[in-house]
Amino acid sequence: MSIRNFFTSRTEPALLLAAVVFAGGAWLMPAWLAFLLTLALAKALVVLGVVIQMRAGLVSFGQALFFCIGGYGVGLAAQYLGIGDAFALLALGTVAAILLALACGWLLTRYREIFYAMLTLALSMILYGVLVKSSALGSTDGFNVVPPSFLGWVPEGDARKRTMYLLTVLVAAVAAIGFHRFMISSLGRVTEAVRENEIRVDFLGISPQAVLFVNYVVAAGVSALGGGLTALASGHIDPDMAIWTTSGEFVFIAILGGTGHVAAPFIGAIVFSVIRTFAIQEAPHFWQMTLGVVLLALILFLPKGLWSLVARRSKKEAAA
Amino acid sequence: MQASPCLSRPSFRLSAIATALALAAGVSTSALAADNGKYRIGIVTFLSGAAAGPFGVPAANAAKLAVEALNAGKLPAPYGKKGINGIEIETVIIDEAGGATKQTEEFRNLVQRQKVDAVIGYISSGDCIAIAPAVEELGVPTIFFDCGTSKVFETVKNPKFLFRTGLDAVVDNVAAARYIAETRPNVKTVASIQQNYAWGQDSWNDFNLALKQIKPETKVVSEQWPKLGQGQYGAEISAISVSNPDLIHSSFWGGDMEALMLQGGARGLFDKSVAVLTAGETGIEHFKANVPNGTVLGGRGPFGVFAPKNALNDWFRPAFTAQFKEPPTYPAYKMVQAILGLKAAAEKTAKVGAMPTAENIVQGLAGLTFEAPSGTVHMSRSKGHQAVQSVSFGEYQFDAKTGKASVTKVKTYAGECLMPPDGSNPADWIKAGFPGAKCS
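^ Those are the sequences you sent over. The predicted structure of the assembly is below.
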C-alpha cells in the first residue's frame, strides 16, 4: 500500500506538515508566541466542536460547558486525586465531559434551531452558577493547577512551557486528522444532510436524532480536551470558563474561520488571538472596539469565513 | 462537502502567513521596546467593565499623574529624584478585563514581548491568584496593588519577585468588627448582603467570625446573596427589613454598592439599622443626601478620605483633583503607593543613575519601609513581600448647606492588631481569638 492510498486526501499530509512546522517552531519562536499559540490551538479544539454541530445545522451557545468540565476535570483531579500526569488528566476531563454529554444529549438532540441554542446556553450557565456559589471549589477566584508531569518526566523552566506547547500541537494534529476523517465519513456527511432536509434523512432509514447524538458527544469530547489543555497551559481554572461570553467567543471564531474545512477553526482561533493581543497592546482603552471592527469587516467581506479565501483560490486554480 | 484534495496546501500557507505576521510584529515591537533607555512599567487595571469606573480608571489616572510628576521630578521628598533612580519612566497600560486565562496570556506578553522591567497591577483576586505563579516563573518584579484575597501568598509560599503593597480583605473585616464593637455596643442582630462571588463570600465569612469572637452575643438574622452586578435589590431589601437587624454588613463595591444604598434608603432600610460598608469609600462623592449620616464606611486601609496629613498627600490629593475633576478614591491611593514602593526599592539598592535591575528591586523592596500619601508602609509580612498598614473606619457625614461630604468619628487600627501571623490560616486565627494581635 502506497503512502498516497494510506491518506484519504491531500489534506492529511498537509495537516501533518503544518503540525511538524508548528512543532519545529517551538525552538525558534519567542516564548510569548508559543504560549499564545498553545491557548489558541486549545481554543480551536473547542471551536471544532462548535463547527461540527454547525454543519448539522445546530448552533451550540453553550460549548463552554464542556470546555469548563474539561478544565475543572483536570484541575480537580490534580488537586484532590493527586494525579500529576498530563495525559491521565486530559483523559479524565474528556471522559467526564463525554459522560455528561451522554446524559444531556438525549434531551438536547430533540430540539433544533433557537431552542437548541438556548438549552445548551442554559446548561452551561447552570454549571457557571453552581461553581460561583461553591466556596469549596474556589468560587469566582477558581484555583491554580500545578504544572503536570509528562509520562513521569517533570520538565523545568523553559522546557515546561515548550513541552506543553508540543503536547498541544500533537493533540491538535491528531484531533484535526481524526475530525477530517469524521467529516468525510458517511456519518459526517449525513449530518449535513440532516441540516438540509431532516425528514428525507428519516425516510432514508437513518435516525437523525442518533446522528446528532453521536455528533454532540464527539463535540463534547473534543471541547473538553481543549479545556483541559487550557487549564494545564495557563495553570488556572475559574468559572468564567463556563460563562456564556466564553461560548459566544467560540461561536464567533467558528464564524470567523468558517465551517468548510477542518483547518478553518485552527486558522480562525490563531487569527483571533493575534488580533486580540495586538489590539490590547496598541489600544488599551478601545481594544474591544478594534477587535469588533476588524471582525465585522472580515464577516462583511468574507461571509463564509476566512476559509473562503482558501476555497476561492483553489477554485480558481482548478479552473485555470 | 468542500474537502477536495487541492485545499490542503493553501490552508497551510495561510496559517504560515498568520504565524509569520505575528512573529514579525512581535519581534519589531519588542526590539523597539527593549533599548530606549527608559524604565518600563506594565500597568494592569480595569479599563472596561463594571470595575473600571470605581477602581480601574481612578487607578490608571493616578498612575499617569504619578509617572508624569516623577519624570518631571516634581514630587516632594523623599521622592524628589527624577523618574526612578534618575531614569525616565515609561508605562505600558493594559486592560484587566476578560478573565484570568486571558490575563496570564497578557502578563506573559507584557514581560516577554513588551519587555517591561516591572509590572504593577491587578484588582481582581482571581487574576492575582492565576498570575502569582507566572510572576515567579518569569522572574519580573511584580506588585499587586489592590486585590484583596488572602490566598496570594498561600499560592506562592516562597515569593521572590511577587509583592503586594495593599492589604487583604481579612484585615478590613476584622477592623470593621472592632469598630462596630467599640462604637455600637448595643448591636445584637446582624444582617448580611453580599455579592455572591469569592469576594463577598470571604468578606462575610471573616466579618461574621470576627464579630462572633468580639461580641459573642450577636445573632445573624438574615443573609442575602444577590449576584454580582444585579443592580436591583428590592427583594433582598424587603427580606432584610423584615428581619429587623441592628446592623447591616455589606462588602458591595462600586455601582452595586451605590445602587444598594439608594434603593435601601428610599425604602427606609437604614431608618432603624446602620449599614457598614467595607468598600464604601469610593461612593463618598456621589452619596450626597441619599445616604444617611452615621453610615459606617471603610476604605480598605488609610486611603482616600482616611488618608493622613503629610507632604505627599498634600501634593497628591490637590493634584489629582485638579487634573481629573474628582478627588482620588482608595484605588488611586493604592496605585501611587505601589509606584512609590517600586521607586523607593530601586533607589535603595541600585547604583546612582544606573538602570535598576530586577535583583535591585527585589532586594530593595523585601522588608522595606517607605512613605506614601497614606502614611508609612511596612513590607513586613510574608517574608517582607506583604505590606502592613493601619485600617480606618468612620461615619459618613453630609453637610446639606455646603454640599460637602466627610467622615467623622474615625478610628484607626494598627496592622499588628488586624493581621494574622505569617503562615496561619486567617479563619483559624480569628476563631482562636486573634492570638498575637497587638492592639493599642
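The radius of gyration of chain A is 20 Å. Strands of chain A lie at 143-144, 236-237.

Shout if you want it in another format.
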